[in-house]
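Protocol step 4 of 6: structure prediction from sequence.
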Amino acid sequence: MILFKIVVTICCLISVVVLGYCSIILNRSLITNRTPIGWWIIGVGVIQLFIIMIPAIWWNEWWIAHALILSISAGIAIVSSILWAVIEVASRWH
């Protein structure tokens, strides 16, 4: 069981770094050298889900006590994905 926790924690940390780098750093505008707000929303929205999962993996009591936080975190990730899609579509129309 401990090996599983270690592997999942490493995967979560790698996901935070890779998703943060890909969504925020690699999507800079060539003109302004700034990342559009849509990419910040999707980056932070999805990354926070992985950050919330790390303590939940290691402490069973945390998992049980904070089930609502985990549900809200998943909801934030879903809403941020939808917001990103809306912002991307709207920016392509203009």
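Step 5 (inspection) to follow. The chain has a mean pLDDT of 84.
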